[in-house]
Specification:
It is globular and about 50 Å long. Strands 1-2-4-5 form a 4-stranded mixed sheet, covered by helices on one side. It has a two-stranded antiparallel ribbon with strand order 3-6. The chain has 5 helices and 6 strands, in the order H-H-E-E-E-E-H-H-H-E-E. The chain is α+β, with helices and mostly antiparallel strands. The mean pLDDT is about 95. The longest helix is centred in the middle third of the chain and has 13 residues.
Length: about 170
């Protein structure tokens, strides 16, 4: 949901449909959800109401390296009175891409790779979400994060996975 929200409301208005869809890399196993030359955006979604709290799933997810790295945080709340649901968001993206059939086709392929199936649209429609907050954070030196460089001698031997919340 959050990646599609970012694509529709942030990236598509700032670029062409083809460029926007080609930057969406998360469903194909890329390191970041959206990538292009020396820029990357990691997208996180949270339903925690107390504030912006996002789950980081690996030690390198917020390691900018030489990239200009950003974290897009979308906070949502389940709300039966909201009109927002996943199938309608997919439909809105398709409408935004309708002038570029190649971008539409790539978008459909990426949806499939992400595990989305129209067979479950009726189930997806039962989860209605309200957007509480949407922010773009620059991941810089003082941004709260754990990276391999956070450990003086590297990640300790025997530690194979690190996940945390910011």
């Amino acid at each position: 949901f959050a990646e599609l929200w970012f694509l529709l409301h942030w990236l598509l208005p700032a670029s062409t449909p083809d460029v926007a869809v080609h930057r969406w890399r998360g469903p194909i196993g890329a390191r970041r959800d959206f990538e292009w030359t020396s820029h990357a955006i990691e997208v996180k979604c949270s339903s925690i109401v107390r504030g912006p709290v996002f789950r980081i799933s690996s030690i390198d997810q917020l390691d900018a390296g030489t990239d200009d790295l950003w974290l897009f945080g979308l906070r949502v709340r389940e709300d039966a009175s909201s009109p927002l649901n996943l199938p309608d968001l997919v439909a809105a993206c398709l409408v935004a891409l309708e002038l570029d059939p190649d971008a539409q086709m790539r978008f459909e392929s990426m949806l499939t790779r992400s595990g989305y199936s129209r067979l479950f649209d009726s189930e997806y429609r039962t989860l209605l979400l309200r957007i509480v907050d949407a922010k773009l954070y620059k991941v810089c030196d003082d941004f709260p994060k754990l990276i391999a460089g956070s450990f003086m001698q590297g990640v300790p031997n025997g530690v194979s996975e690190v996940s945390y919340t910011v």
